[in-house]
Design goal:
Layout (H helix, E strand, L loop, with lengths): L3 H31 L6 H13 L4 E2 L8 E2 L3 H11 L1 H18 L4 H24 L10 H28 L13 H23 L7 H23 L9 H10 L6 E8 L2 H8 L1 H18 L5 E6 L2 E6 L5 H16 L2 E3 L2 E3 L3 E8 L5 H17 L4 E4 L8 H14 L8 E10 L5 E12 L3 E3 L1 H8 L4 H22 L5 E5 L2 H6 L2 H12 L6 E6 L7 H14 L2 E7 L6 H6 L4 E4 L1 H4 L6 H16 L3 E5 L4 H10 L3 E3 L9 H10 L8 H5 L10
Parallel strand pairs: 8-9, 11-13, 13-14, 14-15, 15-16, 16-17, 17-18
Antiparallel strand pairs: 1-2, 3-5, 3-8, 4-5, 6-7, 10-11, 10-18, 11-12
Helix pairs in contact: 1-4, 2-3, 2-4, 2-7, 3-4, 3-5, 3-7, 4-5, 5-6, 6-7, 7-8, 10-11, 11-12, 14-16, 16-18, 18-19
């Protein structure tokens, strides 16, 4: 059957060619015979060139295949102005047939194109007739005005017919993209206004007409450059997939009549491929990942490369979170098959975050939600996580997790399975390590390692959260005492929940721990989120003020992603603001994210606060943050989170590097050359 398909397609195309050619020839002959008077040699040379040039029609960038610019219109417009509508339409029918054969259009598409141009030429001829257009002895200013009016009538008539046909057919479901119409409108106008120049040349001497081909070539190059510019703006140059901008445009322009889901895929351990096989092999692997995703995603969905090793799929026919998960599992299974690369089968997996959408919601919000879910999946060692208004908040699995955590906290460390990892925070200006953030892990006896986001999301609404915070604070303060007595006194940041802040006894608990271990209060920093402020802002203000007076620094975490309000920066006794990783990760490729980061850094500096950027994963971002004046960086570019025992070894090998000191980076002393 597969072998028969090309033959069937070939027969269908030949049938279309025969029918189109015969129909066009018959219609053109009838129109020519019906035209009055003998047609001069100038007409026949013009007609011949019109048919010839349509063997190379101009495709409009980013539009349907039927949306083309026919270079013949400059010749047929000239014929309509001088010899009337009938000869012009006759020649246009022949030229449209040539263009349709060249582009392998169906008979329906060819007829659609012929109808548009016939109506356009008729409208132009009517305007020229009413304006008493004259080319003998020579056109004047009035004639130039009439020509412009005829060109406008041509354009309006063609677009009116196209809109009418779309309204009567299924093409009405495809939204018009007005922003993409500037290039083809300009090219069409240029060709039409070239028509009277062609006509004057034909009347003087038909031998001058071939010289117009150079002008047509210039118009062709203009359309081609517009297409290349359009593609560069909306498509990824490596994989050929649409890019982040195209995704945002698609989400904004398509009026969803059903639920949609955005699936964000981040390839796991892709950096090891670059390190082992080189960046060239990594690029080839990304193109093969793009090809495989495209092959398994339906045509009604959109596959996008966001940058680096991140891809996204906009699924347009999703009913609920369960169906979105099924799509994600299908994608994960497709990527789990080995990729042959330079004779080596490369195994890949992906962490997938899902954000659900119904109605009109902001594309940037969905991207952040999908990214948050992706990191949740990555941190908890799962492949798929859902973020959205319909994602289950209280599932049997989550209730079981909380019950297991309560049981674990009744045991003494380390039997409870609670493990703290520490991620260094680096002063960007000097390269010095100024502190660490304590990140929670829980080694569940059956589920394995449970990441902090899943753990905190399950525990925070319950009284178990206060038990967990007490456990974490004690271990962190004890570790601060060890570092203070050793060679590396450090400040440690600990996340606290809304429940801890609302209870109020956290102040006494922190004070008691600092006194017991003899740790100065300025070595401890507590991180709060904006969501913690909403339930009881007065209680939170009272609690944080007491902590600040004690000497404990307060940091506002994930600034810009929650209930951002400048009054929080003004009223709370803050020491620093942490810029959310969703902005930092994209600032090297997204001008909007970069602008947000610069704004937050500037605002923090004006208020006398430190600005800390989370999610710094590459040198480019590190340098951009330095240029923006950001104080502190935290992320995988410098070091991954690590246990306290490994941190001491890392600190002994770490060499401070300033962002502008290129020589040290080239010589191998960059922070990421010694990270764990």
């Amino acid at each position: 059957m597969d072998a028969a398909r090309p033959r069937t397609a070939g027969l269908r195309h030949r049938r279309t060619v025969i029918v189109s050619t015969v129909s066009a020839a018959a219609a053109a002959l009838a129109l020519l015979l019906g035209s009055s008077g003998d047609l001069p040699a100038a007409f026949w040379v013009t007609a011949l060139l019109a048919v010839v040039v349509d063997s190379r029609p101009y495709l409009v960038p980013g539009r349907r295949a039927s949306a083309v610019i026919l270079p013949s219109i400059c010749f047929t417009f000239a014929i309509a102005l001088a010899w009337g509508a009938a000869p012009a339409i006759a020649v246009q029918l022949a030229a449209v047939t040539v263009a349709g054969i060249r582009m392998r259009h169906s008979l329906r598409r060819t007829l659609h194109l012929a109808l548009q141009h016939a109506a356009a030429l008729g409208a132009a001829a009517v305007v020229a007739g009413f304006g008493s257009l004259r080319f003998d002895p020579g056109p004047g200013w009035w004639d130039a005005t009439v020509i412009c009016a005829a060109a406008i009538a041509w354009i309006c008539a063609r677009h009116a017919v196209a809109a009418l046909v779309r309204g009567l057919t299924s093409e009405s479901r495809a939204p018009a993209r007005r922003r993409r119409g500037h290039a083809d409108l300009l090219a069409t106008a240029a060709l039409l206004l070239l028509g009277p120049v062609v006509l004057v040349a034909a009347l003087v001497s038909p031998a001058l007409l071939p010289l117009t081909l150079l002008a047509l070539h210039a118009v062709h190059r203009m359309v081609r450059w517009a297409g290349e510019s359009e593609r560069a703006a909306r498509f990824d140059p490596l994989t050929g997939l649409p890019n982040r901008r195209a995704l945002q445009t698609a989400m904004a322009e398509r009026a969803p009549d059903r639920r949609r889901a955005l699936l964000l895929l981040d390839l796991d351990r892709f950096r090891t491929v670059n390190d082992a096989l080189g960046h060239g092999a990594g690029d080839r692997l990304l193109t093969r990942v793009a090809d495989r995703l495209t092959s398994v995603v339906p045509a009604h969905d959109l596959v996008v490369r966001l940058g680096g090793d991140e891809f996204a799929v906009l699924a347009t026919r999703v009913e609920d979170p369960a169906s979105a998960r099924r799509i994600a599992q299908h994608l994960a299974e497709a990527l789990s098959r080995p990729f042959p690369l330079d004779g080596t089968p490369v195994e890949l997996s992906a962490s997938i975050g899902i954000a659900l959408q119904s109605g009109r919601r902001d594309a940037s919000t969905m991207l952040r939600e999908a990214e948050s879910a992706m990191y949740e999946a990555k941190q908890r060692g799962d492949q798929v996580a859902v973020h959205g208004p319909d994602a289950a908040e209280h599932t049997p699995d989550r209730l079981t997790l909380v019950a297991d955590l309560r049981t674990a906290l009744r045991r003494d460390p380390p039997d409870d399975g609670i493990v703290l990892y520490y991620q260094p925070q680096i002063a960007i200006g000097t390269g010095e390590v100024v502190g660490v953030e304590a990140l929670l892990r829980w080694r569940h006896p059956r589920r394995g390692t449970v990441g902090p986001e899943e753990l905190l999301r399950a525990a925070e609404p319950t009284p178990v959260m206060r038990l967990l915070t007490a456990r974490v604070l004690e271990e962190v303060v004890a570790q601060l005492a060890v570092w203070r007595d050793g060679r590396f006194p450090l400040r440690a940041a600990v996340n606290v929940s809304a429940r801890d802040l609302h209870a109020g006894d956290i102040v006494d608990r922190v004070g008691g721990l600092l006194d017991r271990y003899g740790v100065p209060a300025d070595l401890l920093q507590l991180e709060i989120t904006e969501s913690a402020l909403m339930a009881d802002p007065h209680r939170v203000l009272e609690t944080t003020t007491r902590l600040s007076r004690m000497g404990v620094a307060i940091s506002l975490d994930d600034f810009g992603t929650g209930y951002s309000s400048l009054q929080h920066l003004r009223r709370l006794p803050l020491s620093e603001v942490k810029i959310d990783r969703s902005f930092v990760l994209g600032m090297a490729t997204d001008s909007g994210d970069a602008a947000i980061v610069r704004s937050v850094v500037g605002l923090a500096g004006d208020l006398g606060l430190r600005a800390v950027a989370e999610g710094v994963e590459d040198e480019v971002t590190w340098r951009l943050l330095a240029a923006a004046g950001c104080h502190t960086a935290q992320g995988w570019f410098h070091a991954r989170p690590m246990p306290a025992a490994d941190l001491g070894e890392w600190l002994s090998r770490y060499r401070p590097v300033q962002p502008w000191n290129r020589g040290e980076i080239d010589s191998g002393f960059a922070p990421n050359t010694v990270k764990q």
